[in-house]
Specification:
There is one protein chain. This protein has 231 residues and is an alpha+beta fold. It has one domain: Umud Fragment, subunit A. It has 4 helices and 12 strands; from the N terminus they run H-E-E-H-E-E-E-E-E-E-E-H-E-E-H-E. The protein has helices spanning 7-29, 63-68, 169-172, 203-220, and strands at 30-34, 48-53, 79-83, 91-99, 103-107, 110-113, 116-117, 146-150, 155-159, 175-176, 180-190, 228-229. Strands 1, 2, 3, 4, 9, 10, 11 and 12 form an 8-stranded antiparallel sheet that branches. Strand 3 (79-83) and strand 4 (91-99) form a beta hairpin. The longest helix has 23 residues, at 7-29. It is globular and about 65 Å long.
């Protein structure tokens, strides 16, 4: 008669199963993401921590999969997380404003898609209309006047909601579909204190950030943004 497995072995097996499940979930279903910059204000603020739906943009489902599972393509208005076309090691978050075949144009900061003005004042903001007076920074060249440009098939044109302070498709081009990781789903925590830039600054800096977050958790958490759906 075989002996019963030890309690430690049962705990170990349970932990391994949990780790595999979490890894699968993080990779294929839901991922976490935090906002390090103000390019999506006021929809997303620096310090917002998100759940990202990685399942929604399945890889070209057909037949039974397409009808039974909630797969779909990126749509205009979706807030998407994707790998940067310039630096694929970085993840970015922007709003898709145009899909393959659409013609994009910006005239005096007004966005036009297929020749029609986009009325997006419910989320698009212009916080810094000044482009620098007589000298226009080259980075501003396409900010307020761009195109017309037709988005290639299988690509997306993405812009930040903070239109005057967003480095986006106006500057580095469209996002290929294979770089899209998922759709922003829910703010599960919004922290108003210091937020990591994502760059490794050493053990000391990391420990200091963790302590500041721990001590400021209750006073600096934006409770009114907790569990807010992202639109």
């Amino acid at each position: 008669m075989e002996g019963k497995p030890s309690v430690w072995r049962e705990y170990l097996e349970a932990l391994i199963i949990a780790a595999v499940f979490l890894l699968f979930t993080e990779t294929f279903v839901v991922q976490t993401f935090y906002i390090p910059s103000g390019s999506m204000e006021d929809t997303l603020l620096i310090g917002d921590h998100l759940f990202v739906n990685r399942f929604i943009y399945g890889s070209s489902p057909t037949g039974v999969e397409k009808t039974a599972l909630p797969f779909r393509n990126v749509r205009r208005g979706d807030i998407v997380i994707f790998r940067s076309p310039e630096s694929p090691e970085l993840d970015l978050v922007k709003r898709c404003v145009a899909v393959g075949g659409d013609t994009v144009q910006v005239i005096n900061a007004q966005l036009y898609i297929n020749g029609k003005a986009v009325h997006d004042s419910s989320y698009a903001l212009h916080k810094n209309p000044d482009t620098g007076g007589f000298y226009v920074d080259p980075r501003m060249r396409f900010r307020d006047n761009y195109g017309p440009y037709t988005v290639p098939p299988g690509h997306y044109f993405c812009m930040g909601d903070n239109r005057d302070n967003s480095y986006d498709s106006r500057f580095w081009g469209t996002v290929p579909a294979h770089l899209v990781k998922g759709r922003a789903l829910l703010i599960y925590w919004s922290y108003g204190g210091k937020t990591s830039t994502g760059q490794w600054e050493g053990v000391g800096a990391k420990a200091r950030d963790l302590l500041e977050t721990a001590f400021g958790f209750f006073s600096k958490t934006r409770w009114e943004r907790t569990f807010r759906l992202i639109r």
